[in-house]
Amino acid sequence: MKKVALVFMALVLCLGVFTGFSTEVNADEASAIGDPNKKAILVVSFGTSYADTRKITIEATENRFKEEFKDYDVVRAFTSQMIINILQKRDNIKVYNVKEALNHLKDEKYSQVIIQPLHIMNGAEYDELAAEASEFVDAFDDLKIGSPLLTSTQDYFDTIAALETQLPELEDNEAVVFMGHGTHHFANSTYSALEYALHDLGHKNVFVGTVEGYPGLDQVMNRLEENNIKKVTLMPFMLVAGDHASNDMAGDEDDSWKTVLKKAGYKVEIYLHGLGENKGIQKIYVEHARQLIEGNVEKDQENQEK
User: Fold this and answer.
1) E-strand spans in 46-109?
2) Which of 47, 52, 91, 254 is most buried, with most CB under 10 Å away?
3) Per UniProt, where does Co(2+) bind (predicted)?
4) Is 244 annotated as a binding-site member?
């Protein structure tokens, strides 16, 4: 029985990581830890050292949170310590990492903290974020973590609806190729699921590849050849149009996607805008946080199962 109980607890903890967890403290069991009037939304992204795209993606999304949740203070954190260090040294800009941000909110006696990641998937970065947040379960009266962009089935449909606002009208021999980052994590299958959903919704000439995962550019080019594509519009499927989008996708180097496709005979156009600029994508992140605040996460999951 003890072994069964331990297995059950492990499953509960795993579900907590992937569906959002809550560490609400029962008021009858403990006195308040923080000031009940102090509530914060910690918006977490990988970050970028590119000031122009940071302003119109990450900052724009943070501003959307400020507009939607006026009772909450919106705080920024990056997961990339390298980017944090660059900004501090080069631009004298201080950005918290996740632990620093949570310690700051703890020291300032915040009672409720919603952590909303701007990650694409439930991958390695999200796992690390959840692990770091779990160290602060006793620091707040209510600590919850929201879901990345592509978590539920409905998220895929909502994301595609947002992407439709930036897709050009395509002729039979034209295609859009999204470049994702890719990951060693098993959540990398998210990219293939997105392409499947795109095709299922009628976007047959829209393909998804990754820089550091599968499918890569070779697999994408196989699809282009199979569909007799002559013209390709490249778009980043990343929060910001930073280094990968500017160089690996749209750069002039021999191994950039633009150069490789041009050498293969394709006409190539570039759409150099991060997902964070897309108001529909911003809305999905906002709604993920709203579900936590209003306590609708479990209800939303039940609807997905019906």
Assistant:
1) 73-78
2) 47
3) 181, 212, 244
4) yes
Quick one: average pLDDT of 250-257? Answer: 97
67 in a known ligand binding site: no
Domain residue extents for the chain: 2-147, 167-272
Does the annotation place 185 within a ligand binding site?
no
**What is the assigned CATH class of domain 167-272?**
alpha beta
pLDDT 10s digits, 219-230: 999 999 999 999
Q: What is the pLDDT of residue 32?
A: 79
If 0-12 CB within 10 Å is exposed, 13-18 middle and 19+ buried, where does residue 18 land? middle
Packing angle of the helix pair 124-134, 2-19 (nearest 10 deg):
110
User: Can you give the pLDDT at residue 247?
Assistant: 96
pTM of the model: 0.88
For the segment(s) 2-147, the CATH number from 3.60.20.10, 3.40.50.410, 3.40.50.720, 3.40.50.1400 is 3.40.50.1400
Place of tokens 């923080």: 34
Question: In angstroms, what CA-CA distances link 90 with 77, 80, 86, 218, 289?
Answer: 18, 15, 6, 37, 33
d(CA 211, CA 227): 22
Which residues are part of the catalytic machinery? 181
Encode 140-169: b = buried (16+ Cβ within 10 Å), e = exposed: bbbbbbbbbbbbeeebbebbbebbeebbee
